[in-house]
Write a structure and sequence with these properties.
Radius of gyration: 29 Å
Number of helices: 29
Oligomer: single chain
Helix content: 40-55%
Structural class: alpha/beta
Length: 725
């Protein structure tokens, strides 16, 4: 995770507007200077999109083109909004509103409710699950805890897709969404839930958006007042916009087009919440005059990590895949990704913990390491393994840093010491600012050495240690800074939710890892049924699972490890298979094949109706039909089209493969799959070039088995396994 205590968080404010542009690459600079009309920024992972859009806003403000109070920057998490506010402050563009959709709408709702409706705004319901439980009970429908959570999520999805209770069953059927209960039952619970909210005079988070939309649609005077306030809009993570959020954005804009959107369709992983990349992909259709800038220079990851990420997406299908971006690493080469197969889950967790311990011993900070998994239930075995290995860790999704009790108490103590100044005997022996902070925090049971083990005591120590590290970096960046200066900095960070990093290995789900990055990432549990998850049934759902793995891969800066276990428990049947998404990527899993066409970086200016040229179809060499199945594309013909395969050659190849598999102690398909052997027997290659052009024959297999295969195709018997190896 980007270290919030790094000294680059305390740069000098640029002296001029032009200085804001210093250090931007050509595409980022283009984004920063495109200050009028619709702008669409297609930004790949690690390409500096936040840098580009914050410098864009700051440049506009510093150049006098944009008034700070007239800009509304919208994103999806409080953390991202806080980071954006922090960066804008450092660039001399304070006063710009950077908020989530919900917080921006809530402010407007609170202000205009008395005028539009009258009286006080109903109380905001922090958690709707109890009310959903009450609604289910009144419907005489029994829900266990997991079902209750799932039904609550369904109600949230229905509301952000603007689906009323009566229409829910039809909407589920249309979306091919798998409901956790009978859709008619959920519709009944949903309807009663809405009734209970009205009876109890409460609203939920989705109502905040719905009610704001309703007021802006009905009260043109209020809509115009908001439009006079905000003249310029920036929307980050635009691929995650729901239909309801898009409707609100349209109402904020009115008939204007001063809108800049930023997103990456290949990072669409929240469709279960109602998010859709359609608004991003259709942006040029809605705004024909838009400037489109593509950011593909990856400053985060090494060429090895980027190559894996590009290879993963090269196998993707669907509309989002047609708009994928081919990343180009800007970093020096690093280690190759590591693929590891384990016998069972505990062995995988223990092996992961050992490798993490080795990385820490080699100098990688624990806070720069993450273990990412598909579902939160996978965390327990890794928590135990890390604890057994003596490695500190933190679970992603905990309480906000500045809201933790120990951090609030530390802030009060530091503020008191700053007010006392030289009159506080506690600071008598403290020679500099970091020493003063350590002295003050020692009264809160902070010690230079962490407590043993994990749990609440360790969590508290890590929080206070993060404050100490921030003080050390602050003192290096601003020599002569006082305790009062640090307290002021902490107050500003608390207001922006700009937290320093707690030093511990991060355990997080792949969904929770979105937007973060680490030096070392361990992607674990990569088996069929887990990734893609077993309930991903449709092609679209499976492709979203692929994008989820892509997000995980692109979190890594330098070290990347991918692992899977063949069984759940020690001694269990080894029935699991590695994720299909690793096919062609991990050693021994076949060739990746050619990488399809992807968007390169650059700028497209306002060409009405311009669309990216789709990748050319693969056609059957017999009947000319378009091929879509992987097996058919490998054979270059439809499965039911007549084959010109040399049956005798095919059998000789199968016999040779069996011998190779025995000598290498590997399954036969690890040598070549049946489809690859069929393709060889049909095309009968005579040269290395002809053989390597067959899907499933990569460079490694060509080097290892090519001479044998060509000899068999020429009528020989091939060499022995040892010679071939």
């Amino acid at each position: 995770m980007t270290a919030a205590t790094h000294s680059t968080l305390f740069p000098q404010v640029p002296e001029t507007a032009d200085a804001v542009l210093d250090g931007l690459d050509p595409e980022q600079r283009e984004v920063a200077q495109a200050l009028s009309g619709p702008v669409c920024v297609l930004a790949g992972a690690g390409t500096g999109k936040t840098r580009a859009i914050t410098h864009r806003i700051a440049y506009g403000v510093r150049a006098g083109i944009l008034q700070p109070a007239s800009v509304l920057a919208v994103t999806f998490t409080n953390r991202a909004a806080g980071e954006m506010r922090g960066r804008l402050r450092q660039l001399g563009a304070g006063g710009v509103q950077a908020r989530t959709f919900h917080s921006a709408a809530l402010r407007q709702l609170q202000f205009f409710w008395p005028k539009a409706v009258g009286g006080d705004l109903p109380r905001l319901l922090e958690r709707k699950i109890q009310l959903v439980a009450d609604a289910a009970a009144r419907c005489r429908i029994r829900l266990d805890r997991n079902e209750l959570r799932d039904v609550t999520s369904e109600i949230e999805w229905a509301k952000v897709t603007q689906t009323v209770p009566a229409d829910y069953p039809a909407a589920v059927a249309k979306s091919v969404r798998e409901a956790p209960r009978d859709p008619a039952e959920i519709s009944q619970i949903y309807a009663l839930y809405e009734q209970l909210k009205r009876d109890r005079s409460v609203i939920d988070f989705e109502d905040v958006l719905l009610l704001t939309v309703g007021i802006l649609q009905d009260r043109h005077d209020i809509a115009e007042q908001i439009r006079r306030q905000y003249q310029h809009f920036v929307v980050d993570e635009y691929q995650d916009v729901s239909p309801l959020q898009q409707r609100l954005l349209d109402l904020w804009l009115g008939d204007r087009d001063n809108l800049c959107v930023v997103g990456d369709a290949s990072q669409t992983i929240y469709s279960f919440t109602g998010a859709t990349p359609d608004h991003l992909l259709n942006f040029r259709n809605r705004h024909p005059s838009a400037t489109v800038v593509k950011l593909v220079r990856d400053y985060r990851s090494t060429p090895q990590v980027v190559h894996l990420a590009n290879g993963l997406l090269s196998q993707a299908r669907g509309r989002a895949a047609e708009h994928r971006l081919e990343l180009i690493s800007q970093r020096e080469p690093g280690p190759e990704p590591v693929y590891t197969e384990y016998a069972d889950e505990p062995a995988e967790a223990e092996g992961t913990a050992r490798r993490i311990r080795d990385l820490i011993a080699a100098g990688v900070p624990a806070g720069e390491i993450a273990v990412l998994y598909r579902i939160n239930a996978q965390s327990e075995v890794y928590e135990q393994a890390l604890a057994d290995a003596g490695v500190p860790y933190q679970l992603r999704g905990a309480e906000r840093f500045f809201e933790r009790q120990e951090v609030r108490e530390a802030g009060i103590a530091l503020r008191g010491a700053a007010r006392a100044g030289g009159n506080d005997s506690l600071l008598d022996d403290a020679e500099d600012l970091p020493a003063q902070v350590r002295a003050v925090l020692s009264t809160k049971n902070w010690t230079p050495q962490p407590p043993t083990g994990s749990g609440a005591a360790r969590d508290r120590w890590e929080s206070l240690a993060a404050l100490v590290r921030l003080a050390e970096d602050f003192a290096r960046a601003k020599p002569g800074a006082t305790l009062s200066d640090l307290v002021a900095e902490l107050d500003e960070r608390a207001a922006a939710q700009h937290a320093p990093t707690v030093q511990g290995v991060t355990l997080a789900s792949l969904h929770a890892a979105k937007g973060l990055e680490w030096d070392a990432v361990f992607l674990v549990g990569l088996t069929e049924g887990m990734l893609p998850i077993t309930y991903a049934k449709t092609d679209e759902q499976v492709e979203e699972e692929r994008r989820l793995l892509y997000v995980g891969v692109t979190r890594a800066r330098l070290h990347l490890s991918l692992s899977w276990a063949l069984s759940r428990a020690p001694g269990g049947r080894a029935s699991r298979r590695p994720s299909r998404f690793l096919k062609g990527l991990r050693p021994g899993s076949g060739s990746l094949g050619s990488v399809g066409t992807a968007a390169s970086g650059g700028i497209e200016r306002g060409v009405a109706g311009a669309r990216r040229k789709p990748r050319g179809p693969v056609l059957c060499r017999v009947c000319g039909a378009t091929l879509t199945e992987a097996g058919a594309m490998k054979l270059m013909r439809c499965e039911d089209c007549p084959s010109d395969m040399d049956e005798g050659l095919y059998e000789r190849l199968r016999d040779w493969r069996s011998e190779q598999a025995r000598e290498l102690a590997q399954p036969a398909y690890c040598v070549f799959t049946d489809k690859t052997l069929m393709a060889i027997a049909e095309r009968v290659p005579t040269t290395d070039g002809e053989l390597s052009s067959i899907s499933g024959v990569g460079i490694r297999k060509l080097d290892r088995f090519g001479a044998d295969v060509l000899a068999i195709c020429a009528g020989g018997e091939g060499r022995s396994g040892d010679e071939g190896a």
